[in-house]
Design brief:
89 residues, alpha+beta, 5-stranded antiparallel sheet, 5 strands
């Protein structure tokens, strides 16, 4: 495969991922999950003062019936409440 085709395929993959995440976000807004969040990974760091947690390597987040697997999951909290989750890979 030539480099232009690889770039086009990468761009298409990113566009599809963005579309899927947009649809997921829209659906999530309509159905906010409830219950405890469980996160596991090969390595984890948490900075209480910043309210951030980073989970790397086979990271998995579970809340109810929802499951998210990624290379890296970042959690952002405020007043000990989960505000946002970012996942890559």
């Amino acid at each position: 495969m030539n480099s232009q085709a690889a770039r086009n395929r990468s761009a298409l993959g990113k566009a599809l991922l963005a579309l899927a995440l947009t649809a997921l976000t829209a659906g999530a807004a309509a159905q906010q999950p409830t219950g405890p969040v469980e996160v596991s990974a090969d390595e984890a760091t948490f900075e209480q003062s910043a309210g951030t947690g980073v989970y790397r390597g086979n990271a998995e987040l579970i809340q109810g019936k929802r499951r998210l697997n990624a290379d890296v999951i970042r959690l952002f909290t405020e007043n000990n409440e989960l505000m946002r989750v970012e996942a890559t890979g």
